[in-house]
Amino acid sequence: MTASTRIAKLMLDDKSFDLPVMSPTLGPDVLDIRKLYAQADVFTFDPGFTSTAACESAITYIDGDKGELLYRGYPIEQLAAKSSHLEVCYLLLYGELPTAGQLADFTKTVTRHTMVHEQMHNFFRGFRRDAHPMATMVGVVGAMSAFYHDSLDINDPWQREVASFRMIAKLPTIAAMAYKYSVGQPFVYPKNSLSYAGNFLNMCFSVPAEEYVVSPILEKAMDRIMMLHADHEQNASTSTVRLAGSSGANPFACIAAGIACLWGPAHGGANQAALEQLREIGTVDRIPEFIAKAKDKNSGIKLMGFGHRVYKNFDPRATVMKESADEVLDLLGIHNNPTLQVAKELERIALQDDYFISKKLYPNVDFYSGIILDAMGFPTSMFTPIFAIARTVGWISQWKEMIAEQNQKIGRPRQLYVGPTQRDYTGVAKR
Ligand code: ACO
């Protein structure tokens, strides 16, 4: 952030208040209202944070109009084409691309943390088999704070580091265990000779009775899904992690809070909801009826996988994901399944429809990720857990950035109170 000489003036009744203007390295200027309440006795009102910068951050930049997404300055398209998820993890955590030696060390460290405490297996067995894997993950990740006492002290930089390695390494194991438990198959231990993505596929799809060979194309597609979802500046789940962390809560509890927030269908739950909606539409001839419902506010139906709070032109992640979807479907020889036909036709019609054009609603990353994950053989309930694995590094990077801030304060929004004014209590007999 660079100090700007510009000052905004707020006129309230007959008084004027100066609001310093802060200039970011990229993006719109920001009005500093921190002293506004003390000076003018007013709050600002911005539910949904549509015009509020809640923190300073040097991690991810999004230009929604240009459809631009940068991790530490690097365009997502370049990273998706040339990098790997673990390299992106390093970049997000430490701010720079690693040297070959740094990447090898980082990969080794993460790989060595992939197993979970053996006693956690019993913990899993306490859940019902039909539990949604996200429900299991919220519980199990939160419970990590009951297992890893030596990485709970948020004031110790080394403990923060170890907690980061643990979560990046163990989230795939936990998600795969949640899946295996839900289908009644034995847990598969991590295999450290495999890549991060390959290991996850192996833990999900191999069984002790048979040899499972990870397909390089599926491994690459999974790695790309992870890179594309790794961070997205101050989205709802990341803001949740920051808010939870601002009270001094331990890192495992904060990431569990992020997972809970991600689950919602307006956020990470959209990939599951999008594919389920495609299946519900079922056949191409039902699309017009469905689009009509999505346009009707009273129907309560939205076209899942369309629209984004920030991207109002296109979602750059969706462009890469669409290419990946084509590769995966080609590899698996899936050209004509009904869900894919509905998806392609829905995308074509919606992109030409005035309602969607005028409201700048384009397919987002979740529209295509569901198609790939479905083709890979994942049930829809695993789509959001995979998003959670990928986003873990973003949550942790943002949490670490916040904890390291000099004057970090607890997050405590104010409100526009619209309830009753003070009134006297009446006993039950008189009501
Ligand atoms: N289908 C139909 N209409 C829509 C859709 C949609 N998917 N999305 C937005 N609209 C309409 C709204 O009804 C609203 O109409 P209005 O101006 O007449 O009131 C207008 O477009 C603006 O929408 P908002 O909901 O105000 O936009 P907001 O920025 O708050 O929401 C969101 C963005 C939550 C992503 C929304 O577009 C949505 O619910 N999409 C479907 C769910 C989804 O795909 N979420 C994934 C997001 S990406 C991610 O998390 C990785």
Report the β-strand fraction as a percent range.
5-15%
**Arithmetic mean pLDDT:** 94
The helix content, as a percent range, equals 40-55%
Query: What series of H and E elements makes up the topology?
Result: EEEHEEEHHHHHHHHHHHHHHHHH
How many beta-strand elements?
A: 6
The backbone outline, from C-alpha atoms, is globular
Largest sheet, if any?
3 strands, antiparallel
Strand order of the largest sheet: 1-2-3
Structural class: mainly alpha
Characterize the quaternary organization of these chains: single chain
Helix tally? 18
Detail the poorly predicted runs.
Answer: none
Associated small molecules = acetyl coenzyme *A
Q: Please compute the radius of gyration using only Cα atoms.
A: 23 Å
> Ends: how far apart?
57 Å
Characterize the structure shown:
- Helix content is 50%, strand content 7%.
- It has 18 helices and six strands.
- It has helices spanning 36-40, 76-82, 85-94, 100-112, 120-125, 133-143, 157-183, 196-205, 216-228, 236-246, 251-262, 270-281, 287-295, 316-331, 338-352, 354-358, 365-376, 383-403, and strands spanning 2-12, 15-23, 30-31, 60-63, 68-71, 74-75.
- The strands form two sheets. It has a three-stranded antiparallel β-sheet with strand order 1-2-3. It has a three-stranded antiparallel β-sheet with strand order 4-5-6.
- Helix 3 packs parallel to helix 18, helix 6 runs antiparallel to helix 11 and helix 12 (270-281) crosses helix 15 (338-352).
- The protein is globular and about 80 Å long.
- The model has no long low-confidence stretch (mean pLDDT 94).
- Bound molecules: acetyl coenzyme *A (ACO).
- Acetyl coenzyme *A (ACO) is lined by residues 266-268, 270, 294, 302-309, 359, 361, 364-366.
- Residues 266-268, 270, 294, 302-309, 359, 361, 364-366 line the site of acetyl coenzyme *A.
